[in-house]
Amino acid sequence: MRSEPAGSPPTPGGADHDPLLGCRILVAISGSIAAVKLPALVSALAQRGALVRCVLTPSAARLVSPVALASLSRSPCHLEEDQWSHRAPRPLHVELAEWAELVLVAPLSATSLARWVQGSGDTLLSSTLLATEAPVLAAAAMNTAMWGSPGVRRNWEELQGFERVLTLGPASGLLACDRQGSGRMAEPQQLLLGLETLRLHGWRRDWQGRRLLVSAGPTREWLDPARCLTNPSSGRMGVMLAQAARFRGAEVDLVHGPLNLDPLLLEGLHAYPAESGAAMGETLKRLQPAADAVAMAAAVADHGRAAPEVRKLSKQDLLATLSGGWCEIPDLLAELVARRASGQRILGFAAHSGDVLPQARAKLLRKGCDLLFANPIDRPQAGFGVSSNEGWILGPGSRERRIESTGKFSVAHQLISALGALLDPLTPPAEAPAEGLAAGRRAAADP
Ligand code: CTP
Questions:
Q1: Which of 22, 132, 395, 433 is the most buried (most CB within 10 A)?
Q2: Within 13 Å and on the Cβ side, how many CA atoms surround 205?
Q3: CA-to-CA distance for 295 and 372, rounded, in angstroms?
Q4: Phi, psi of 252 (to 5 degrees)
């Protein structure tokens, strides 16, 4: 099983099928202290084979070194004073705007937000944003009071209506100005997922106003305080599903067993840890009524102890005990299907060795879910603990679609599209939702 240390921004979707490979990404950095996180992100993008250029506002150039960014991006870094030059045949903002396949504005300060929304092109960064026709990922960062001020709220809400723009509102935490509250820029892991979403799906929030319930990871059934029955699921497939839906506008509840993933990948989700099958079942039952759709990606252990030992068993006693005292864990997916309200759509998973399809077809019928993603676990680069996957989407009914080997985030987007296609159309919300991703944007859906 691959373990992922916290801190380094890995390839969230999987290194072997990287949607950012060869992509021309313009990184636009404005004046917020969160700019200090950008050199590591630029380095990560360049190492993944993206073609990166950076543009900085004068304030950003005081916070991070343009020389470091030029070196890490392997490309000249563009500053305010570069905009107009008698040596350049074309205005720099137009050249950069047309060069970019994707633009990342991070951090987006209050000032740069205001310029952008008001259509003011009085700086290199703001005129580049006005001139580009590429999809843009914008990650705001500022002091809590600034973020809450009426002018910033108004500008941010207006930005939500911009075509081709995906926004990431700030997260809460301790800010560099010593305030505790909303204002921290989304983590670099989230910025990478946002850029990948723009490549894999685009900027449209087709899950806006929806709520998705996802289960992920293994469960643990304790034998005694020192031993448990579990499996090698890392939780990656479920977390990628949750993030794909969240970036497409959904509110997502994630019920998860012990994950072997960078915890920063959970940002923006409502996460509910649940270690055992029973705990997972209880939490799912509580959250199910609010969900428009459910994705059951957890690898639930099949059996547990009727009465786990309170004291650690000796190895001889352990062997003797294992011959009896087991109980079957209820089929949580079947329970969800039996309890669901009309219109709720459910996706199940089936990991198999050998001939996957016949087993999966039988499982789809047995479980009664709308869709089933069947994947092999005995092929390299598929199944447990790796960043890629392959398989078949079965359903609805007898429909079957092959998914070739690709990154798990790409599989996740394809599954979210398949699940979304089954949902009933939303009734228009009373007032237009207008909020960034991290700040939460539930418009309708609680039945
Ligand atoms: N599942 C569940 N509760 C269980 C076991 C499985 O909800 N106790 C769900 C999984 O989350 C998955 C689907 O059922 O979405 C299929 O899981 P799988 O382990 O393949 O199926 P089982 O029912 O355990 O059947 P078997 O292991 O015999 O193939």
A1: 395
A2: 28
A3: 9
A4: -125, 125
pLDDT digits (tens, 9 = 90+) for 66-111: 999 999 999 999 999 999 988 888 999 999 999 999 999 999 999 9
Please give the Cα distance from 297 to 289 (Å, whole number). Answer: 18
In angstroms, what is the span from residue 342 Cα to ligand 1's centroid? Answer: 23
Among the listed residues 172, 189, 205, 195, the one whose alpha carbon sits nearest the alpha carbon of residue 239: 189
pLDDT band at 438 (very low <50, low <70, confident <90, very high): low
Residue with the two structure tokens 């939500």: 160
What angle do helix axes 92-99 and 124-131 make, rounded to 10 degrees?
50
Q: CA-based diameter of the chain, in Å?
A: 86
Ligand 1 pocket (Cβ < 6 Å) reads 277, 296, 298, 300, 302, 329, 331-333, 348-351
Closest CA to 389 of 399, 397, 379, 398: 379
List pLDDT tens digits, range 192-202: 999 999 999 99
- Written in H, E and C, the secondary structure of 246-258 is HHCCCEEEEEECC
Q: Between these two residues, 54 and 377, which has the higher pLDDT value? A: 54
Q: How far apart are CA 103 and CA 80, in angstroms?
A: 18
> CA angle, corner 391, sides to 389 and 395, nearest 5?
135
- What is the whole-number distance in angstroms between the Cα of residue 406 and the centre of ligand 1? 23
Contacts 24+ apart (CB under 8 A), 151-154: 151/110, 151/114, 152/110, 152/113, 152/114
Chain position carrying tokens 């159309």: 425
Give the CA count within 13 Å in the CB-facing half-sphere of 408: 23
Nearest CA to ligand 1 atom 21: 350
Domains of the chain: 24-200 (3.40.50.1950), 211-420 (3.40.50.10300)
Q: Which residues are catalytic?
A: 177
SS3 98: helix
User: Distance between CA atoms of 33 and 175, rounded to whole angstroms?
Assistant: 9
